[in-house]
SET domain protein
Amino acid sequence: MMHSGEDKSNVVQLPEGVTPFIHITQNVFLRRKHKKLKEDDIAICQCKYDTSDPESACVERCLNVLTNTECTRGYCQCGDTCENQIFQKREYAKTKLFRTNGRGWGLLADENIKAGQFIIEYCGEVISSEAAKKRSHVYEAHEVKDTYMISLDTNYVIDSTRKGNFARFLNHSCRPNCETRKWTVLGETRLGIFAMKDISVGMELTINYYFEWYAGATVRCLCGAANCCIFLGAKSQRFKEYNHVWKDRNDRKFSSSAYDTIIWLSYCRYKVEPSNRSHKNYNIGSGSSSTTKMKSPNAFPSGRSHGAYPNGRSNLLVVSKSSKEAREEVTKYELNSVFEETRPTIEEHGRDNQDIVPTNVAEKWIKANCSKYNTHCTLIYNSK
Ligand SMILES: C[S@@+](CC[C@H](N)C(=O)[O-])C[C@H]1O[C@@H](n2cnc3c(N)ncnc32)[C@H](O)[C@@H]1O
């Protein structure tokens, strides 16, 4: 069935290899139609177009602009000169799809873009947060690699997996050049992508999935920024609630390493303290020996590990306050066998999918492991 907003005439050309989707030009609501604003509810600004003042036609001083509300055609005194209908008029910047290195497809600027410029609306199916949760489980079960859900507000999520526009190709960066902004357009909340700085033609357009990303699986971030958070949306509440996930089947998403373990442990909100040794912000638990020789980081096999930890080896668990510090520490102390140790114990819990470990299982495991090695374990507030 064709919904309003689906692009009937303009079948978009996709480069070879892009998974097809239904191109839409405005959000699609599953259970209702677009709102029809009552006349009383229409926000009318006080701008009047003055030919000698280009700023007069609903630019920065406009009351509607100041409240992130678009003017309504036919009600704005500036008429066709009104500059505050960019979502409605789809005044998008020129962008182009391109193949990234390791992050699937991405979107780049196909013209120079000015700081603050509207680039594109993020369009998709608007669904409730509950429906989004269910969908993300379904997508995960079907091993859908890419996630296209983004929160619209506390109750609604935009899902552009099946229906969307080119904004769905925006990749994440921990140091992005674009940001999302919410606007009220004809009574509906809509999500726009805006440039945070001047962007030159040919540069990739990125946003931070930080708080808003609504994803099912944990994906290793490949943005390459110095301040990288290691996982996509890692700081979002939803990530913390739902994504205690361990996924390494796909090397694009994970390459097994102790960093994964570290981050995973830190999400479990436990700090494990050593009986006799401490190290700055984080601690290395060393139950019986502090001179244990571990495998080198690169020696750890990628993919699932079924190997039991060697008998007699000291335990070690690390929780970091900063992923950068943790990373350095892992390399220094060659802590990859932690990863190997955690696997068999978690597998004992008999989950259908051993790559997905709920927090309570992880927490139990950490406690059990700590007492096994006489290591002190304290619950702390997540330090990330
Ligand atoms: C909204 S889609 C972006 C478009 C996607 N690259 C594609 O090919 O369709 C989000 C997905 O892209 C990938 N992705 C985006 N940013 C990434 C990053 N910084 N590192 C690794 N993967 C990333 C992840 O698979 C994520 O689930």
